[in-house]
Design goal:
about 325 residues; about 35% helix; single chain; disordered N terminus; alpha+beta
Length: about 325
């Protein structure tokens, strides 16, 4: 059960990082209607400056599978960790967000469901999360520091978006203006390599490196390997005539790898483990300019109930460190 609780915390942390990252993308848009994927992405960022607030609702299904490979496979069987999430996120554009999360996780025959409400107060230097476990009716508080170098990276977002969307497909359809972005184009970008290097540096600085990280020690080799494995996996964005994002979804995002677990963790080579990962996300954006600030702010009464969960962490702790 403790493993399930840690999985909840890690999943919540990564979801919050994803939304925070998307909220920071506000670049210089084009005056006329975009004709390319990169121009569309930049125009959306420009539009966010004026509408400021919006609502995001959707579902996410993540399935992680492990199986012993080779002659011992039938004896040892396999394990899977499916995570199903439904969420609503409201952003007021003035330093506040609100999340409603419902999560179902199964692991080693144990199933657990959890419903949480999360309020976030954020600035360029720090964010504070107030998390409410609905079942136990308890509140906790966690501070997340945002380092200056992380802010500097996102200040370069125009260049990042141009590179990430440079090779993406742009198509006008009955459903809207659709941008299809292959993950291989993101992973192969210099911006992604910079993110990967920063994550590795952070892990090493924190003294959390171990033999397992040798697999990630060569970013170029890892990027090439991931591109080969991910194939046609893509992100699909749909925009309306006002250049506003209406839907985001993943397409064919799956990964399968056979690992030499003995060598990976510093032991004897020869023990093979098959690892499978699939991600399916479908999210609708709506209510641009219609979300009230009061919907995103935690009440003083509930804030007073929140118990501090410990020392502040930084963005890299959420991505590369432990979440306890």
């Amino acid at each position: 059960m403790e493993r399930i609780k840690k999985s909840y915390k890690k999943t919540i942390a990564l979801l919050l990082v994803m939304v925070m990252t998307m909220s920071m993308f506000a670049g210089c848009g084009a005056g006329s209607f975009p004709k390319t994927a990169s121009a569309m992405a930049l125009s959306y960022g420009e539009q966010l400056k004026s509408v400021e607030n919006y609502k995001l609702t959707g579902t996410a299904t993540v399935n992680v599978g492990f199986a012993q490979a080779g002659d011992e496979a039938s004896a040892l069987g396999s394990m899977s960790l499916p995570v199903n999430v439904s969420f609503t996120n409201k952003v007021d554009g003035k330093g506040h967000m609100m999340f409603d999360l419902k999560m179902d996780i199964s692991f080693l025959g144990q199933s657990n469901s959890r419903e949480m409400q999360i309020y976030m107060e954020y600035s360029d230097t720090e964010s504070t999360l107030y998390m409410h476990d609905v079942e136990s009716d308890t509140w906790t508080k966690q501070s997340v520091k945002i380092r200056e170098e992380d802010v500097d990276f996102f200040r370069q977002q125009d260049d990042v978006l141009n590179e990430w969307f440079d090779k993406a497909e742009f198509e006008d359809t009955d459903d809207g203006h659709v941008v299809t972005q292959k993950l291989s184009d993101i992973i192969g970008s210099s911006a992604f390599k910079e993110i990967l290097n920063k994550a590795m540096e952070s892990v090493k600085e924190a003294g959390k490196e171990n033999n397992a990280l040798n697999w990630f020690s060569n970013p170029d080799e890892l990027i090439s390997h991931l591109n080969e494995k991910l194939g046609n996996a893509a992100f699909v964005y749909t925009f309306d005539d006002d250049k506003l994002l209406t839907n985001f979804k993943t397409k064919d995002v799956s990964f399968s790898e056979e690992l030499d677990t003995g060598a990976l963790f510093g032991g004897t080579s020869g023990s093979k483990m098959k690892f499978d990962l699939s991600v399916d996300i479908n999210a609708d954006y709506s209510d641009y300019g219609k979300v009230n600030e009061s919907e995103c702010i935690i009440s003083d009464e509930d804030k007073a109930k929140a118990k501090d969960s410990g020392a502040s962490v930084d963005m890299n702790d959420l991505l590369g460190g432990s979440t306890t």
